[in-house]
Specification:
heterodimer, A: 241 residues, alpha/beta, Spore Coat Polysaccharide Biosynthesis Protein SpsA, Chain A, seven-stranded mixed β-sheet, B: mainly alpha, 2 domains, elongated
């Protein structure tokens, strides 16, 4: 199946070549597209040197818009499956291949890589979340589960795989600044099969997390508003079904 | 009914001077809007609401009794309070309208940027296909 792996990157020149190389090893058949979200460093040229296609947004638009660009490309270019992972090296490409297996087998429309799904794994995990991230994760997990009536453990995971149904939905509707959580709510509301798969995640290679306590608090508040509003949004009529 | 209107009109204590000043301001305002449109600094579709505002000002200056009537209808005894609350509400609505327009334009700009970025990626893909063919 024609597969596109896309990597949203904003000033990640340090880590993006390694991530592209990793994807090339784990998924030699897949095309790799880096969405350069208005980087001011050499992200775009490094990615091109590493052999990826690069879509450069003319100015920074936020993660949601960058991801939507990837879904849009996958849809327009007729890819049957797509997957995305972070550019900072937190997501091992081999794990992305495991997510794609679920899509190939048509067990789900959208697969999320969860670093919290497996409780035994969490203890020995290489990934150690910060305190503020842990609170945010807990709050979002609770409210998203409440909103969708489906259990989600890793709501903000940026490692996902999807089929064409999801591409069609996300390329049309994807919140530009609150992408991760609202997209899950949206997919479940549209009757798509969303599934979580436990994955291993690493500490980032380069760059720093954008989360400070104050930002986290604001992020959580915004997330709750988005979820609440999302519950009352009109459902989109899906022509495919 | 007519008696009530007459009574209301008599209650208004605007002097002729303030009315003239208000009327001049209203006309100047509308001329400014026209000038902005003429110089392409304001699009017609966003100017309608400002013309309505200007006409409202002119009407208020010409027929001060109108304001008293509106205040009566609102159940507000003080016409000044009525005036300020009406203007405040209108401005609030206008600000909200601008937020809606801004959101729409932000979405349009995002889509434009995305399409342009994808065009570049497609060009790169085509070029690599070309050079790949040339090499082999």
């Amino acid at each position: 199946m024609r597969t596109l792996v896309f990597i949203p990157a904003w000033n990640e020149e340090g880590s993006v070549p390694a991530v592209i190389a990793g994807v090339g090893e784990a998924l030699p058949e897949a095309d790799v597209l880096v969405i350069d979200d208005g980087s001011t460093d050499a992200t775009a040229s490094r990615a091109r040197e590493a052999g990826a296609l690069v879509a450069s947004l003319p100015f920074n638009q936020g993660l949601g818009a960058a991801l939507q660009t990837g879904y849009l490309y996958a849809l327009q270019e007729g890819y049957e499956c797509c997957a995305h992972l972070d550019a900072d090296g937190q997501h091992p490409p081999a794990e992305v291949a495991r997510l794609l297996q679920e899509i190939y087998a048509d067990r789900a429309d959208l697969v999320i890589g969860s670093r919290y799904r497996d409780p035994d794994r969490a203890k020995t995990d290489d990934y150690k979340p910060t305190f503020s991230r842990r609170i945010g994760t807990g709050v979002f997990r609770f409210f998203l589960t409440l909103a969708t009536r489906q259990r989600f453990t890793d709501t903000t995971s940026g490692m996902r795989a999807a089929n064409r149904r999801v591409m069609a939905l996300f390329s049309e509707r994807y919140s530009p600044d609150f992408a991760e959580i609202e997209s899950l709510q949206l997919a479940v509301r549209e009757g798509l099969r969303v599934e979580e798969v436990p994955v291993r995640m690493l500490e980032r290679i380069g760059g720093t997390s954008f989360l400070t306590p104050l930002r986290s608090a604001f992020f959580i508040f915004k997330g709750l508003v988005v979820l609440l509003v999302g519950q009352f949004r009109p459902r989109r009529v899906e022509a495919e079904r | 009914m007519t008696a009530a209107i007459l009574a209301a009109v008599k209650q208004v204590n605007l002097t002729a001077q303030t009315r003239i000043v208000a009327a001049i301001l209203a006309v100047a305002f509308m001329v400014m809007i026209l000038e902005l449109i003429r110089r392409d600094k304001l699009q017609e579709r966003y100017s309608v609401v400002w013309f309505v505002a200007g006409l409202g000002m002119l009407l208020g200056a010409a027929f001060p009794g109108l304001l008293t009537l509106v205040a009566e209808a609102m159940g507000v005894r003080n016409t000044n309070v009525a005036l300020f609350s009406i203007v405040l509400l209108l401005l609030l609505g206008l600000a909200l309208n601008f937020s809606v327009i801004m959101s729409r334009q932000a979405a349009q700009i995002t889509r434009l940027a995305q399409e342009q970025a994808l065009e570049k990626a497609r060009a790169q893909a085509a070029e690599e296909r070309e050079t790949g063919r040339a090499r082999s």
